[in-house]
Amino acid sequence: MKKAKLAGLLLFITFLLLYLMLVKHRYNALKPDAYKPPPHRKYDKSTGRPAAGLTHQYAIMFDAGSTGTRIHVFKFWMGNKEAPELAHETFRSIKPGLSAYADEPEKCTSGLMELLEAAKSSIPASVWSITPVVLKATAGLRLLPGEKATHLLDRVRRVFTESPFLSRGDSVSIMDGTDEGISAWITVNFLTGGLHGARSPTVGMLDLGGGSTQITFSLQDKKSIQTSPIDYIRSFQMFSNTHTVYAHSYLGLGLMSARLAVLGGVDASPLGGSTELVSPCLAPEYSGSWTHADVMYRVKGQKAGEPLYEACVTKVEKVLYRKVVKVSEAADMDFYAFSYYYDRAVDLGVIEDNKGGTVQVSDYSAAAKRVCSSLSVSRPQSPFLCLDLVYISVLLQELGFPPQKQLKLARTINQVETSWALGAMFHYMESLRRH
């Protein structure tokens, strides 16, 4: 009798648990979905192939930067209406950059061929002829005299034309800074899921390079669209949706160019090939050398006087005076920050180099005060860290970010590099579809 009662009780508990699980399932099904990056596509376990309706597409992007040339070989799964999914990326790089061959453009050929061989080994030969190959050059070539840059790009076009891949007249070009920022914005929002639906929230992008700095974010406020400089607003199609973004590149306000300006130099080769620069942003007794744009500078700190931090802030504010447009809407959006924003946060120990993390704008300014104040009592680990941190903190405030604003720092998202290359490739593939 007791056994029968116990069995009945267990059966009742089992049915009760099943009922509660069913109710929970139905409740979750009725709840609005929380935002999350799109899941990986389902694959047929028996064949290892993607779900029905998907095809694969390869694409090759060359990133011709100032210090090196990098190749990204992308493999995408393409659906009829959905955004593509990145299935795989192959990455290789060589040094020096294309601009190093400005006087002997034919010598860049061997490096390009080496990278093309890496592409061949990553892509089935059967699809070489329909795989687009694209090269976008950035700051290194933007700074070259026009004729030298043209000869280099003509050499690249010849190499691409003779390759087995799909090359068109617009496959090789110099990318302007704003397009670089937009492409990085596309990359980040593709990887975070912001481009996978018309209502998916997007994030903003901040990039601090050596020669320029970019800010790009999706505008939500009509007033901001109306009051922003007209050439800062861009609209474009991506994955069947139209995006309107605020995008601008400040040439000459990258960290290395700004460092030169704060030190009192000018962005051109001085007569004689070297010069001496004295700055309040350096330790009072410091004397050393610094090379920028192939020019060797002797740099020295000023004699002890005004507190270092305050003196350096004053100098940086003069360099940035009326050069940056403040955007109030940006303060309310999530932003990712890259390049020197990331590197200096690593230097401070705020984030780990291989993991990334988050940082507040006030973290940069607090660190600047601490580092600058210590210069008069101890030898700095890096003579320019005080200057760099003051510049970053003042720049962020000039852009409209309050001290408590939190920025996300990442080198990769979902194990994919957060460079502009992926976004530029999507942009180019969109243009192929329209023609």
Automatic annotation (TrEMBL):
Q: Which InterPro entries match?
A: GDA1_CD39_NTPase (IPR000407)
Catalytic EC class: hydrolase
EC numbers: 3.6.1.6
Superkingdom per UniProt: Eukaryota
**Which is a Gene Ontology cellular component entry for this protein?**
Golgi apparatus
Q: Where is the active site?
A: E180
What Gene3D superfamilies does its record include? 3.30.420.40, Exopolyphosphatase. Domain 2 (3.30.420.150)
Q: Which UniProt keywords apply?
A: ATP-binding, Hydrolase, Nucleotide-binding
Record-level Gene Ontology MF annotations = ATP binding; nucleoside diphosphate phosphatase activity
Q: Which Pfam families match?
A: GDA1_CD39
Positions contributing to ATP binding? G210, G211, S212, T213, Q214
Q: Which family does it belong to?
A: Belongs to the GDA1/CD39 NTPase family.
Q: What is this protein called?
A: nucleoside diphosphate phosphatase
Q: Please report the organism this UniProt entry assigns to the protein.
A: Betta splendens
Gene designation: entpd6
